[in-house]
Amino acid sequence: MIKALDRWPTKAEALGFVQARTGLDVANSEKYLRDSIPKESYYQKKIMDYVKKTYPDAFVWKEAAGAYSQSGIPDVSAIINGRYYGFEVKRPYFGKLSQIQARTIERIRQAGGIADVCIFPEDAEKLIQEGMAR
Prior knowledge:
- With 134 residues, the chain is α+β, with helices and mostly antiparallel strands.
- It is built from five helices and four strands, in the order αααβββαβα.
């Protein structure tokens, strides 16, 4: 298994690397990449752990699966210094934002919160810094 495939700037570059490294054709390289990228829950945990460690006074929670999973509420939420942050976590290359998620992010922003799509902890930190600059 090739490590750090989720860190290529684009899916095309990651696929090109897989093809060059493994000799697989395009279809099998896509399958290899899909199977090699961790599930969304992996990235959610990384972001939650980062926020808790970096902002120990923050209130951080993960949206429960089930009845609320169709609500569009971001996967990970935090209150930091009295401001709401919503982190809609997506899997690199394969995660897609639904219409309801996009609308929810926009409504959070309109209400004064900070929300966006994140993959890595550094994406979350960029969002937090944006909120702190306001």
